[in-house]
Amino acid sequence: QVQLVQSGAEVKKPGASVKVSCKASGYTFTNYYIHWVRQAPGQGLEWMGIINPSGGSTTYAQKFQGRVTMTRDTSTSTVYMELSSLRSEDTAVYYCARAGSMVIGYWFDPWGQGTLVTVSS
Amino acid sequence: SYELTQPPSVSVSPGQTARITCSGDALPKQYAYWYQQKPGQAPVVVIYKDSERPSGIPERFSGSSSGTTVTLTISGVQAEDEADYYCQSTYSSGTYVIFGGGTKLTVL
Questions:
Q1: pLDDT for A30-64, tens place per residue?
Q2: B28 touching chain A per CB within 8 A
Q3: With an 8 Å Cβ cutoff, is A57 touching chain B?
Q4: From CA A38, how far away is CA A90, in angstroms rounded?
Q5: Rounded to 5 degrees, what angle do the CA atoms B63, B65, B68 make?
Q6: Phi first, then psi: what are they for A42, rounded to 5°?
Q7: DSSP per-residue string spanning A50-78
Q8: Terminal CA-to-CA distance of chain A, rounded, Å?
Q9: Which of A5, A21, A33 has its CA nearest to residue A83?
Q10: Closest Cα to residue B77, out of B69, B85, B68?
């Protein structure tokens, strides 16, 4: 079955960077976009951006431009999301999510299990 | 900036019908999607492309669209349906993703 498995929880100091991984299985990795969405404690969902695993092209939400980098490794079917210059407001659960279809890529099914990133001094 | 507006909360008794709305100017031109999120879990899509239901989602979940408003309807609500529900769409010709603020469904 289609599965996205994310790396484990991280604790970072303000100003540091974090890199979260998302390993895909159960489908052809290069056929579906992967998105990153985050959720601060007790808050709603916030889209961060998208990567096309086929060519590596990316689109980032304006809020994260300049601070986020999404990459992929086709040999291991893994995508990565790196967020730099961390601040306390970046404390959140970070999800990767596969596009729901090859034709319409801007919805999400399935989602990874989430990775808690805590930013604290 | 573009927004999707949902009511913060909806309450219904078991067996009744719950309707959760989502409003946004681009909704007549872009598809809407609905996600269910239970505490401590990742979201799960319950409706895609305004009104399509993924396999494995109960038939009591349905979606509809009218103008700038889309609606998630849950008929014969069950206790297990208590969750947060988020609508999602795109804007700027489908380049960017936006979520509604979420609606907490309480089953009384």
A1: 999 999 999 999 999 999 999 999 999 999 999 99
A2: no
A3: no
A4: 9
A5: 135
A6: 70, 10
A7: EE-TTT--EEE-GGGTTTEEEEEETTTTE
A8: 40
A9: A21
A10: B85
How many contacts does A have with B, using Cβ atoms within 8 A? 57
Residue with tokens 């309707």: B19
Q: Within an 8 Å CB–CB cutoff, is residue B31 touching chain A?
A: yes
Task: Read off the pLDDT of residues B11-43 as tens digits, 9 standing for 90 and up.
Answer: 999 999 999 999 999 899 999 999 999 999 999
Q: B-chain residues within 8 Å CB-CB of A62? A: 96
Instruction: Identify the residue among A6, A51, A102, A108 best suited for mutation to test binding to B, counting B beta carbons within 10 A and taking the highest.
Output: A108
Beta-bridged to residue B70, according to DSSP, are B22, B65
Structure tokens at B94: 């489908």
User: Of the candidates A33, A45, A31, which has an alpha carbon nearest to the alpha carbon of residue A94?
Assistant: A45
- Token pair recorded at residue A28: 């052809």
Judged by DSSP in three states, B85 sits in: strand
Give one DSSP letter per residue of A91-109, joined into a string.
-EEEEEEEES-SSS-SSEE
